[in-house]
């Protein structure tokens, strides 16, 4: 395979490190493609990103700023913010058994509709309605 170079079905430490590096490179490549499409990418990183461009870039790769940026940033700052947000989303998915923030919110609303006594657990009588 591409990472399991010996075909053993197991990853040694060097192969695991290669896998992590490839994942990171893929993420950066996706970000770069999105920023090129928005004309925000410069090979020499000599671009200033306005708060409006920052928000557009975040949204274009599926990220939504919790708190909008009030000042501009450079290209490195934007890429850092994109990577940081993606890491937070991955952490949230792990924490919530693969569900994203929106899905958790929807599931919580359904649960709360049945949890009439707001006890945090569902009794049989609450499920029968």
UniProtKB/TrEMBL annotation:
- Domain of life (superkingdom): Eukaryota
Annotated SUPFAM superfamilies: EF-hand (SSF47473)
Q: Which Gene3D superfamilies match?
A: EF-hand
Example GO molecular function term?
calcium ion binding
Q: Which residues form the EF-hand domain?
A: 102-129
Task: List the InterPro entries.
Answer: EF-hand-dom_pair, EF_hand_dom
This protein is called what? Answer: EF-hand domain-containing protein
């Amino acid at each position: 395979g591409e990472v399991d170079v010996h075909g053993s079905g197991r990853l040694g430490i060097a192969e695991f490190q290669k896998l992590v590096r490839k994942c990171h490179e893929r993420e950066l490549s996706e970000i770069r493609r999105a920023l090129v499409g928005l004309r925000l990418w410069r090979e020499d990183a000599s671009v200033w990103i306005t708060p409006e461009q920052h928000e557009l870039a975040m949204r274009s790769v599926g990220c939504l700023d919790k708190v909008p940026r009030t000042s501009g940033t450079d290209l490195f700052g934007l890429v850092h913010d994109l990577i940081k947000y993606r890491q937070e989303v991955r952490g949230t998915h792990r924490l919530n058994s693969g569900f994203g923030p929106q899905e958790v919110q929807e599931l919580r609303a359904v649960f709360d509709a049945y949890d009439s006594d707001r006890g945090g657990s569902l009794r049989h009588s609450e499920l029968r309605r």
